[in-house]
TrEMBL record:
Pathway terms, separated by semicolons: Cofactor biosynthesis; riboflavin biosynthesis
The name this protein goes by in its record: RibD family protein
SUPFAM superfamilies recorded: Dihydrofolate reductase-like
UniProt keyword list: NADP, Oxidoreductase
Domain annotation Bacterial bifunctional deaminase-reductase C-terminal: ranges: 119-206
GO BP terms in the entry: riboflavin biosynthetic process
Organism whose genome encodes this protein: Phaeovibrio sulfidiphilus
Pfam families: RibD_C
Superkingdom, taxonomy of origin: Bacteria
InterPro entries assigned to the protein according to its UniProt record, in alphabetical order: DHFR-like_dom_sf (IPR024072), RibDG_C (IPR002734), Riboflavin_Biosynth_HTPR (IPR050765)
A Gene Ontology molecular function term of the record: 5-amino-6-(5-phosphoribosylamino)uracil reductase activity
Sections of the chain in a coiled coil: none
């Protein structure tokens, strides 16, 4: 199978948390995070798409709206649906069960307009696929019951021509692709912030059945101080230790 070059890029607090913390240093780091990844004048990753987990999309974009389903919709054609093959940027939404209440075909973030691709399994039924088609939102099917992460990347490469992508979080999505051996690089924008909260989401988070707890290691590529005491760390992912 083919795959793009994959970079996990995440903004974290000093204790590795990825939720927002209401201090000016967080806002400065968030601006720099977007500039590195997406903004046309400043980005350095050269990506054509970025992947986000279902919780991240609900938190930031679809706000836990139920999808506008028509249960009597005519059967849609089997397989993938490509509404926009030539977008400059894609927002790749990992939503295996088809839960997100999309109303728009694009996400505006980081100074870039991105066409939405919904990544589903066969568990997402006809009414959900019909809703995506009515809104002009592309979708790909990758897996029967469980998402096939390698197939997701293969389809992004072969159907949409993405040769470099970013995984934008959250922690469950990050860890599931990393544990599957599909990530080339981890980029952490470390913000000089903390709040001591014991249960916020973190950079990597195991959640069954998508991923499990297990040791991994990394090799430093670069460490660069940024504005306002932020630090940009880039790591290569080392091979998984022998079982
Ligand atoms: N600081 C940052 O840079 C940054 C970036 C992104 C997000 N965030 C924050 O992170 C928080 C959310 O993180 P999170 O770790 O809880 O959730 P998440 O990774 O955004 O989403 C997890 C959900 O995505 C789906 N999913 C993820 N990986 C999958 C896989 N391999 N196969 C199938 N489904 C998969 C599942 O959806 P279902 O539950 O529907 O099965 C899973 O429950 C939010 O508060 C967000 O704001 C921070």
């Amino acid at each position: 199978m083919k795959k793009p070059y994959v970079i996990i890029h995440t903004l974290t607090s000093l204790e590795g948390k990825i939720n927002s913390i209401a201090v000016p240093e967080f806002r400065s780091a968030a601006r720099q995070y977007e500039q590195l990844a997406l903004h046309p004048d400043t980005q350095i990753f050269n990506i054509r798409g970025y992947l986000n987990g279902r919780v991240t999309t609900d938190d930031n974009t679809t706000f836990y709206r139920p999808p506008d389903l028509r249960l009597d919709a005519a059967p849609v054609p089997e397989g993938d649906f490509i509404a926009e093959p030539d977008a400059a940027m894609y927002y790749v939404s990992i939503d295996p069960n088809g839960r997100l209440g999309w109303q728009d075909t694009v996400v505006d973030y980081g100074g870039v307009r991105a066409h939405v691709i919904s990544v589903l399994t066969e568990k997402a039924g006809n009414a959900y696929r019909d809703m995506l088609r009515r809104h002009g939102i592309s979708y790909i099917i990758a897996g029967e019951e469980r998402l096939d992460n390698a197939l997701v990347l293969h389809k992004l490469y072969t159907l949409f021509g993405m040769d470099r992508v970013m995984i934008g979080g959250g922690g469950v999505l990050n860890w599931s692709f990393l544990q599957a051996g599909l990530v080339d690089e981890v980029s952490v924008l470390l913000a000089p912030i903390a709040d001591g909260s014991p249960d916020s989401p973190r950079l990597f988070q195991a959640r069954e059945p998508y991923c499990s707890v297990g040791p991994r290691s990394f090799t430093l590529i670069e460490a660069r101080p940024l504005e306002d005491s932020s630090l940009w760390l880039r790591y290569r992912v080392n091979p998984a230790p022998a079982a």
